[in-house]
């Protein structure tokens, strides 16, 4: 047992020095497809990424290492004028949608549209077939 712990400590030191991940590394992109500014406040249990204004066609993106137990959760609050919504941007359900690679950084794309919040493993041109609707805006 002792050598396993030593190994894990050395491994986590090495990964933190190189900024690599022992678990899967994820990169999340939130693109605003509304012809107006939106504000996104993204958080996890450990991190508060703060408020970000995303202009039309702009994106906010960040990356992280998945937790060892695979239970990483990022959630967000969105404002668009008088409209508001909160939703998970990364959880095990979204991980299943976006986990398409065997090696390397996994990407997950969110598209915020007037008709709702869509997710995809690929940054394709919008279509209902390629993007999965997860929530609509609250009025
Ligand atoms: C983030 O932006 C929203 C909408 O503009 C605002 O209501 C909220 O107070 C802001 N939060 C912070 C911490 O600035
Ligand atoms: C990700 O965000 C950075 C700013 O944090 C920006 O420079 C970069 O262009 C964004 N990535 C993409 C693919 O737009
Ligand atoms: C998605 O693709 C479009 C069109 O190629 C590009 O303009 C945009 O920057 C891409 N977004 C991200 C987040 O990579």
UniProtKB/TrEMBL annotation:
Record flagged with keyword Secreted: yes
GO biological process: rejection of self pollen
Compartment list: Secreted
Keyword Transport: no
Signal peptide range: 1-20
Pfam families the record matches: Self-incomp_S1
Origin superkingdom: Eukaryota
Protein keywords: Secreted, Self-incompatibility, Signal
Entry GO terms, CC: extracellular region
Family: Belongs to the plant self-incompatibility (S1) protein family.
Protein name: S-protein homolog
């Amino acid at each position: 047992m002792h050598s396993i712990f030593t190994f894990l400590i050395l491994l986590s030191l090495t990964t933190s020095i190189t900024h690599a991940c022992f678990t899967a590394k994820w990169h999340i992109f939130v693109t605003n497809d509304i012809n107006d500014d939106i504000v996104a406040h993204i958080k996890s249990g450990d991190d508060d990424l703060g408020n970000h204004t995303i202009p039309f066609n702009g994106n906010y993106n960040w990356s992280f290492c998945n937790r060892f137990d695979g239970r990483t959760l990022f959630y967000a609050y969105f404002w668009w004028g008088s409209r508001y919504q909160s939703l998970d941007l990364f959880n095990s359900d979204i991980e299943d949608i976006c986990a398409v690679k065997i090696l390397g950084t996994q990407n997950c794309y969110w598209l915020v549209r007037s008709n709702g919040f869509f997710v995809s493993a690929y940054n394709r041109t919008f279509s209902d077939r390629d993007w999965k609707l997860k929530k609509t805006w609250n009025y």
